[in-house]
């Protein structure tokens, strides 16, 4: 926590700098918090691994929607190679704030597989305003889809 406390006095300055970039970030059609942060975390969005793996994750439910500071409960669906549902093993969610290079405490949240084949995650708290990466990865004994899938969430203050 020490590095977090050291950063606190600089936060208003960082927020002001971020707002100043909004003019060049617009136009993609993604939702935005108005602070220049572009979010990709929206119900129905499905994206694949950004690092060459086969894992694909689709967002089925965000509570609340859009994500907020405080508890967020996400439900997703995951697929691996050939589009096969990823249901053997564990789907893991890790929130990460790139600006300050930190995650949450705890750092990882393990999904629970429902009868319908969806993964439900325990509440996670992106506790600072700004852009967060919500990273998914698959873990299993033996073969796993591989790679990580990253959604971006814009958290308001
Ligand atoms: Cu932070």
What would you note in describing this structure?
This protein has helices at residues 2-7, 11-19, 22-25; strands at 31-32, 38-39, 46-48, 56-63, 73-79, 90-97, 102-103, 109-110, 112-113, 119-120, 130-139, 148-155. With 157 residues, the chain is mainly beta.
Q: How many domains?
A: 1
- Would you tell me the overall average pLDDT? 81
Q: Widest sheet: strand order?
A: 3-4-5-10-9
The secondary-structure class comes to mainly beta
**Global shape:** globular
Number of helices: 3
| Structure summary, number of beta strands | 12
**Which small-molecule species are bound to the chains here?**
copper (II) ion
Oligomer: single chain
Helix residue percentage: 10-25%
Please indicate the percent range of residues in DSSP E strands (runs of 2 or more).
35-45%
Q: Please report the first level of CATH classification, the CATH class.
A: Mainly Beta
Reported CATH architecture:
Sandwich
H and E order:
HHHEEEEEEEEEEEE
Classify the fold: give the CATH topology: Immunoglobulin-like
Q: How many angstroms does the end-to-end distance come to?
A: 20 Å
Main sheet specs: 5 strands, antiparallel
Uncertain stretches of 5 or more adjacent residues? 1-33
Which features characterize this protein?
12 strands, binds copper (II) ion, single chain, five-stranded antiparallel sheet, 157 residues, 36% strand, 12% helix, Immunoglobulin-like, disordered N terminus, mainly beta, 3 helices
